[in-house]
Fold these 3 entries.
Entry 1:
Amino acid sequence: MRIAICDDEQTVNAVLQKLVAEVVAELGYQCEIGLYSSGDALLQTLEVHPRQFQIYLLDIEMAGTNGLETARRIREQDADAILIFVTGHRELMPEAFRVLAFQYIVKPFEQESVKGILLSAVRLLEKHRTIYTYTIRKKKHSLFLSQIESVESQGRKLIIHTTDGQQIEYYGRMKDAVEKAAGLTFVQPHRSYLINLEQVKNLESWLIEMRSGAKISISNLHHDTFHAAYRRFVLARTGGVRL
């Protein structure tokens, strides 16, 4: 799980970092925390690595690009991210919720209250199934489903191929991967692959070309069901039917 903390007060950043680490550890996730002292610094990171974080804690009043504008620009590229504002001024909250903020933390804050908000944020990600979780060395990790191009099965291992070219290996079963993405835009063209239809570049009768350039064959067993699923996907994207 990746969480960004952006506040121009170093003491606030330090306290929030400690609370985030405690909550995520309690839930069993491995967490990467990005610390930023300005909205401009955070946005520079996101220019290079869009959708880098799943949860953002943003101070509203910062020099340069303030928290509200930072949130607006994050939301333009990421509809799934959870935004939590940190502020000393409740009167700014109506403006904050225009960017679909999840919650806000009022300074000075109580640590237990902050931990409760963070716990709710992680649970929301899990409930809405916008994240794909996997375990490596007894630590839980997560990705947005939209960051995954495909999942490949090789023996007892699964390999996640991400949209930015990473390959993440872990022990698991394809059956479990399929269940995690059930009802979404993930379909099996072959018993050893689960692909994200959003990442399909070209489709032929028996061959799929992904946006990364990877080519995946369609098996006899999955041919008809895969093409039917892809037709439903295209119709949904053009306003025909829901997935």
Entry 2:
Amino acid sequence: NYYQQATLTTSKPTLYFVNGSIPSWRVMMALYEKGIDFEGKRLKVMSTPKETKSAEFLAINPRGLTPTFVDTDGSIIAESLAILHYLEEYYPNTLPLVPVEKSEHIKVLQRIQESQNLVDIYEPLEEIVFKTPKEEQLSHKDSIIKTLQLIDQELAFWEMYLTKTTFIACDHFTLADCAFYPVIAYLIHRGLNLDKFPILKNYINTIKTKPAAIKSHPIDWAEKGGKINIFRVVNNIVVNSNKENE
């Protein structure tokens, strides 16, 4: 996490984002929920060269990563979870998304950080599907099985949290929901089935009707899911590996 100072000031803040990116989605959801008027600048990463690697953007964020938030006074902050805290700190006249009451405040801070656990557990599946040659994918069967087990174990924590509160950290929507909802919504887009987690499934159905969730929903994402169903692909890899070993 870092802060920089830009040379130009603007009439409203700017968010550089990548469509469908969990980190960008988190920040957009918070901006809409807090009612902060901002200019969104979408950067495309599926083209060559990636727009995140342009000289213009690298001058703003040398790491070439989104989201990057440029405030009206020229301040620049990157990293999604850091931006969430920044918005709460430096936009005090907007809807507060972190409770003052100590026990709830603690839970919000903790859940914000915990939301990254599911991302970190899931990412190896995309590595296998998108970056591993097909002829080598069957050799990753054990890793896939272990990752799927870890995902279920992690989801069980969130299911448990929701047995105690309406939202992720307490009984009202907070920054913790901005941090977590895009993670689980992204996994659903990639084929995650939540039938084993009915409370979590109900939570998703509640959140996705909120105006902030609707406005921040990735552009052109179909309700039925993405073009590549990651969970179906990795389960097929396991099945095919078992057949090969019979």
Entry 3:
Amino acid sequence: MNCPRTSNQERAKWRTECRDKLANYIHSQLGLTILPADVKLITKPEDVYQWSILTPVRAPLFNKQLSKHSTGAYIDLCNGVGVHFKAVQGQGAADYELETQHTTTTTALEKSKEHPSSDAITFQSSAKEWRDKFNAEVAIREALEIEMIGIQGEKADLVTEMQVLRKTEATQTHELDKVREVLLMTSRILQERALKASEDSQKITQAAISLKLGSNPCM
């Protein structure tokens, strides 16, 4: 009669071996990495793998959870994998591949950040150099724009000042024209008065001569 402890140890050994063998088979057959502890006999449509029964007599093995089987069932599973049944991709395989690709890409990116290649270092150096040049050109352009704004402001002030000067000049010219006109009128009046005074002087002189001649008839 077998000792219960020895029987349980034997069953545990075959259960572990069965899980390892099925996990390795799934990986070699489908490229899926499944932990031995996660291997299932009863699968769902959305799982990443399914079991396809090739020998109908072995179908009852997949009606019970793997952990519930006996030692003999574990031996049958180990001997029958790839012969009496095989693993096929389930509906979740596509999501698994996308997740695996994402994980692989993320890992590669993290490694590249931790240990950048010489090309990456050269690219980063060139990118920094171009960024510095760009920032310098932007700073120069901003300085020129500020200077241009100042020049435009000065130009506007000069235009305003020129307009004021022209307006002042026009006003002064108008006033000078008025003064010139007044001077011309004054000069004309003075000339007329001088002419009249000259005529009056001549008349007075003639009158005086006439009076003198009238007072001395014998002469």
